[in-house]
Amino acid sequence: MLVSIIIPVYKSEKYIEKCIRSVLDQTFENLEIIIVDDCGKDASIDIVKRILVEYPHIAYKVRFIYNEFNMGSAAARREGMKIATGDYILQIDSDDYVESTMVERLAEKAKQDDADMVVCNICKIFSTKRVVVKNYPPKDNLDFVSKILTGEIHAGVSNKLIRRKIVADHNIYPVPGINMGDDMTILLESLMFMNKISFIDETLYYYNRTVEGSLSKSVYPMINDIKIINLFKEFFERNEIQLPQVLESFDKFKIGRLGRNLFYSDLDDVKKNLDVFTFDKKQILRHKNLPIHYKLIVLFYLNNFMCGVKFLRALKKLKG
Prior knowledge:
Mean pLDDT: 92
Shape: globular
Helix content: 40-55%
Strand content: 15-25%
CATH superfamily of the largest domain: Spore Coat Polysaccharide Biosynthesis Protein SpsA, Chain A
Low-confidence stretches: 213-218
CATH architecture of the largest domain: Alpha-Beta Complex
Order of helices and strands: EHEHHEHEEHEEHEHHEHHHHHH
Number of strands: 9
Distance between the termini: 46 Å
Radius of gyration: 20 Å
CATH class of the largest domain: Alpha Beta
Number of domains: 2
Largest sheet: 9 strands, mixed
């Protein structure tokens, strides 16, 4: 079994050494490592090349893609996936790191179960604490889709080993320009073609939430959310998904995105695009994973209580 590890790199010089060493120290040997330099114009790639000198036994397995200009995380991830040749793909963000046994443990489970995807736990690293996020097996693939939309299952691809044939045969790649939630689109599409999904109750991926200016902490323009919501609508229509549980989860997803935009986007822009965020209002209070301040700002806005909206925005800005 050959495993392709894809690492998009953009302005990660503070964190890339820990990331790349954790990959080069893998106990699993049959690797193809693809590093996509997304033109961050810092020292990240120089650091990677300096470290590779210390690993002559594995350096020849590393391939570089150099973008002429910054294309964004989705396009960088897409490029890496397109040239990957492994039986399975694993994607790692350049400011995160992994256990040295991660690939070995995931690959063992994939081989044992003939799985199309293997999922492990992640550890979110904050400045003052660490939080382990466990992923419990859903009932079926549509339940998996539902739980991704509601946040009950981590929506990222970084803790998931995925059979490459599925994404290659069905042309499932990130959409350039959608740089937050692009991995959700990969997962949802791929789930429609997966027969076996396995889980291992081990924490193997460390998700760095302390990064200044990281993709995960950035607030993207509303257009990002509009694009991804429209993509999901097309996905449900194309696959004729009408299961109430899934559609309710999609409503909850839209509520979360509306809440975020009410906090961070221009309120006039929100008003202009409100038709994109249509949902059953009953789902607002039923959304267990949505923070209370998001629920409140959505309720305030929909009931035209703009004083409440502006107060919550000011409070959020004050807390940072």
